[in-house]
Write a structure and sequence with these properties.
globular; about 15% strand; Rossmann fold; alpha/beta; 6-stranded parallel β-sheet
Length: about 200
């Protein structure tokens, strides 16, 4: 049986979404079964209207990707979290999903699953590494086996971080080819580790 990979991401403008798709490509290339899910907003339209394009992008992505569920997390051998930074930390939308995993945590159902994370930031020093590391904390509490990218592929010497793939989006730019290559490697690496742990 192939590894089952859940990629849960939040994206407002499409940068984190593009990384998520690249991570999925890497996992698929290893023969993994992949579910790509987008965390949902919990603010109203009046708040979304304050950021140009937020509502339209949310509608587009929500039509493409189902919302993540507890059942998705239970199904998966590995969960890869993706988020834009929010002041050097995880977005509230992704964190809300993680906070909802308490039932599975209580039953011990996340123990031994592989965990990994990727991120996008608007500026070059916008918290790429701190945001990924901030996701390590709940992964540890959930009993997951954390798998970073390390410097295990030449792509990581050109982009990303040894903690996980990252992109610097600027105002609206999508990830570069080098940044997406690191994301593909991350998906591949997680799929390989998850497959080995399945036995």
């Amino acid at each position: 049986m192939t590894a089952k990979i859940l990629i849960v991401f939040y994206s407002r403008n499409g940068s984190t979404e593009a990384l998520a798709k690249a991570v999925a490509e890497g996992a698929n290339a290893e023969g993994a079964e992949v579910r790509l899910r987008r965390a949902r907003e919990f603010v109203g339209p009046e708040v979304m209207a304050l950021a140009q394009g937020w509502k339209e992008n949310a509608e587009r992505m929500n039509a493409l990707y189902e919302a993540p569920t507890e059942a998705d997390a239970d199904w998966a051998d590995a969960i890869i979290f993706g988020t834009p930074t929010r002041f050097g930390n995880t977005s509230a939308e992704l964190k809300a999903f993680i906070d909802g995993l308490g039932g599975l945590w209580f039953q011990g159902k996340l123990n031994g699953k592989v965990g990994s994370a990727f991120v996008s930031t608007q500026s070059q020093h916008g918290g790429n590494e701190t945001t990924i590391v901030s996701l390590y904390h709940p992964m540890a509490h959930l009993g997951m086996i954390i798998v970073p990218t390390g410097y295990a592929d030449p792509a990581v010497f050109k982009a990303g971080t040894p903690y996980g793939a990252s992109a610097v989006s600027g105002a609206s730019a999508l990830p570069t080819d080098d940044e997406k290559e690191v994301a593909r490697f991350q998906g591949k690496r997680v799929a390989q580790v998850a497959q080995k742990l399945r036995g």
